Amino acid sequence: MSNYFTDEYTFLSEFKSRLERRYIIELKDASIRQKYHVLGEMVSEVIAKNWLETNLELHDIDHKEVYYFSMEFLMGRLITNNIMNLGLRDTIEKAFAMEDLDLNAIEHYESDAGLGNGGLGRLAACFLDSIASMGYPGFGNGIRYRYGLFEQKIEDGYQVEKPDDWLKEGYVWEVRKEEEAVLIPFGGYVSFEDGNAVYYPDEQIHAVPYDVPVVGNHNGMVTSLRLWNAEPTDKRPPHLNAFEYDTEIRRISGFLYPDDATREGKVLRIKQQYFFSAAGVQNIVRKHMAKYNDLSTLPDKIVIQINDTHPSLVIAELMRLLVDDYHIDWEQAWTITTNTCAYTNHTILAEALEKWPVDIFEPVLPRIYQIIEEINRRFCKGLLDSNYPQETVTKLAIIADGVVKMAHLAIVGSFSVNGVAALHTDILKNIEMRDFNTLYPEKFNNKTNGITHRRWLLHSNPELSAILDMVSDNWVYDPMELQKLVKKATTKKYRALIKKMKLAKKKALAERIYDEQGIELDPSSIFDIQVKRLHEYKRQLMNALHIMYVYNKLKSDADFKANYVPHSFIFGAKAASGYYFAKKVIKLINTIAHKVNQDPDTNELLKVVFVENYNVTYAESIMPACDLSEQISTASKEASGTGNMKFMMNGAITIGTLDGANVEIAELVGEDNIVLFGLTSDEVNSRYENGGYQPLDVYHNHVDLRLVIDQLTNGFFEDVDKEEFREISDRLLQQDHYFVLEDFESYRQAHERANELYKDEEAWFKASIINIAKSGYFSSDRTIRQYAEEIWNIEPLK
Ligand code: 26Q
C-alpha cells in the first residue's frame, strides 16, 4: 500500500483525486463532509499497515496480554489523535495551506464517540492511549452502542435529551470482523445429563466484533478496541415474528444507559453486561486455545481487568466455559479464573454498588446463576469451615437477601482489587470493604488514576506545549520531566509566557461560547469552571448558591464590590435523564445566569454560563482555558476525579475539598498552590455515624446564606414560578446529606483567598506553573505502568 503522506504535493494530489473519484467533485466545490471522509480514509490506510504489523507481531510472540473490559469507552474524536500520533499533521497542514483549507474545521466534522457517561469511560479511553503509546500488548473490550450518551439541549433553562446518532454516516475508523462473531445464549433451562450440565438457551444472539484502532504515539504500534454489536441469528424464538426478533436483539447494543449510578435492576442492562463480557471471554479462550491448546496456562498469558463491576460476569462466564465446555474440574477452573481476573472499584456510593434481584437475574442467565450459586456456596462454606461467625458470612455472601452482589463476586473472583486514588483505596480497605480486606489483604491495592497528557496537553494546548518544549525536549515521552518547570516558577519570563498562553486559551473559549450561546465573557476575568456529570455529591449546587451570595454582595456591599476581581463562572454537566433533582440544579444555574448576566450593576464583574452539551471535544477547549478549577465534592464521595488532573496539567489552580485525587494534588503542589476548604473525609464519616448535622442551625446563624436560601422561593427569580426551586430549598434544610450548608462558609472563605491570590499576579502564575510542573505524576502512562508492573505482570513490546 502506498503512503501518500511523504510530502505535501503527493498528499494533495491524491486527496484531490479521491474527491473526484469518490464524490465526483473538485476540491474547490467539495463539502466539509466529503473532505473529512477522504482524509479519514487516507489516514485509515496508514493505520492499516501498522495495525496489521502489530497484530502479526502480537500473534507471533509468546507474551502476556491485558484485556481491559469496560461497559464504557468515552473516546471522543479520534482524527486529531491519529494524525498527530502518526506524525502526519505537518504534511497535511502544509498541503491544506496551499489550498487555503482549514484542517481544524475538517477535524471538527468528526462526531465524538460518546460511548460512556463520564469519568470511568474516559479513564478507559486514556488507558488505551497509554497502552498503545507505551507499546504494551493490550486491548479494549466493550459494546458498540448504536446510540452513545445523549446530546444535551437547553430549552428554557431545562435539560432536554436528544439521541446521539453518532453512526449515521458510518464510522471511518472501525473494521467489522464478521468472521470472528460468537454466539451468546440467553434464557432457557439447564438439565443435568450424565453428571454434566447441559444448557438449552431460549435464544442465541450473534455478537459481531467491530475493531477500532488505537494508535500509539510515534511508535508504529496500533492496538484494538473491540466493540461488540448484537445481531440476530437465523434461529428465531417461535413467539416472535422476524421484525420483533430483530428489534429485540438490536436493543442489546442499542444504547448506553445514561446513568452513572445504579437505578433499579433492568433486564436489558444485565443482558448488555453479559453480552459483551461473554463475547470477550469466548474470544479470549478461543484465541488462547488456538495458540497454546492448553487452558491451564491462561493466567500466564492473559489478564482481564474488570472496569467496575459492570463486566464482572466474566468471572462466571469463564467458569462456565472451563467447566461445561472444556470439562475442567471446578477447583482447577477456579484457580485459572481467579488468577486471570482483576477488578477495579470506582465508587463507594452505596446506591451505585450493583445488586441484581435474583428473580430478574436467574431467568435471563440460568446457567450463569447456577455457577454464581456454586461460587457462593463454596465461598461461604470456606468461611464457616475457618470459623467465621455466621453474621460475617451473611455480610460477605455473594447472594443474600434475594440479590446478587456484583462487587462481592468481583472481589471473590479476582486476584487483585484496586481503588483509584489513595484516599479512595483507604476508605475501601478500612470502611467499605473492611471485612474483605481482612480476609484477603493481599488483593487490595491502589492505582491512582491518570489522564493521557497527549490528548489533554500536547494536542489540546499547543501553546503550552511550545513553552514546555523550551524546558525539556523529552516531556512528551517522560512527563515527569515537567518538574523542570519548577525552577521557572520564580522567573518573570515564564510567568509572562504562561499568562499569555492562558489569555489566548480563554479568548478562544470565550469566542466559542459567544458563537454558540451569545454570552459575552471578559477574557481577563477569572474563568472559574466546574465541568463534570451533575450529581448531588459533586455539589454544583454549592457553587450556584455561592454565586447568588456574590451577586447579593455586589449589589449591597460597596467594599466587597471594590475588592472583587471580575469572574466568569462556567458550568458544563449532563444529568441522568431520570435524575429529577440534578435537572432542577441545571434549571437553577440557568436561572441565575439569566438574572445576573442582564444586570448592568454587576455584569462587568460577574457572568455565569452553562455550556450546552459538555463532552470530550468541548472539554478539550475548556481545560486549557481555566484559571480556577472547582473540585468541591463532599469529602469521601469522589473516588478520584480526573477532570481535576486535566485542569491542573493546563495550569489551573484547584479550589477543592480533600477528596479523591485532590488529596494527592495537594501533596504534590503544597498548600500554597491549592485552595483547600471543607470537612475532611473523617469528619464527614463521623457525622454520618452520629446522625448527620442540623442544617437549620447553619441557616439561622448565617445571615448571608439564609438570604440566598430564602431567595430560592421568595420570588427573587422573576421569570420562574415561586415554587420552581422549593424542592431544592427543602432538601437543603431538611436532609442536607452532602453538607452543602455546613461547608458553605468554608467554601466562601476559600473563594476570598482565591480572589486575593489572583490579584497577586506573581503569586498566581507561580502557583499555576507549579501545578503544571507537578502534573506529570497524573499522566496515565504512570498509572498504566503501575498496573502493568504491579497487577498485570506484562511487558511492553520492543
Ligand atoms: C451501573 C448500573 C446500572 C446503570 C448504570 C451503572 C453505572 C454506570 C456508570 C454506574 C457507574 C458508572 C460510572 C461511574 C464513574 O464514572 N465513576 C467515576 O470513575 C472515575 C474514574 O475512576 C473517578 O475518577 C470518579 O471519581 C468516579 O466517580
TrEMBL record:
Its EC number is 2.4.1.1. It catalyses: [(1->4)-alpha-D-glucosyl](n) + phosphate = [(1->4)-alpha-D-glucosyl](n-1) + alpha-D-glucose 1-phosphate. CDD domains: GT35_Glycogen_Phosphorylase. One of its GO terms (cellular component) is cytoplasm. It comes from Candidatus Xianfuyuplasma coldseepsis. One of its GO terms (molecular function) is pyridoxal phosphate binding. Phosphorylase is an important allosteric enzyme in carbohydrate metabolism. Enzymes from different sources differ in their regulatory mechanisms and in their natural substrates. However, all known phosphorylases share catalytic and structural properties. Allosteric enzyme that catalyzes the rate-limiting step in glycogen catabolism, the phosphorolytic cleavage of glycogen to produce glucose-1-phosphate, and plays a central role in maintaining cellular and organismal glucose homeostasis. Coiled coil: none annotated. InterPro entries: Glycg_phsphrylas (IPR011833), Glyco_trans_35 (IPR000811), Pyridoxal_P_attach_site (IPR035090). This is Alpha-1,4 glucan phosphorylase. Keywords: Allosteric enzyme, Carbohydrate metabolism, Glycosyltransferase, Pyridoxal phosphate, Transferase. The modification N6-(pyridoxal phosphate)lysine is found at residue 646. It is an enzyme of class 2 (transferase). One of its GO terms (biological process) is glycogen catabolic process. Gene3D superfamilies: Glycogen Phosphorylase B (3.40.50.2000). Belongs to the glycogen phosphorylase family. Its cofactor is pyridoxal 5'-phosphate.
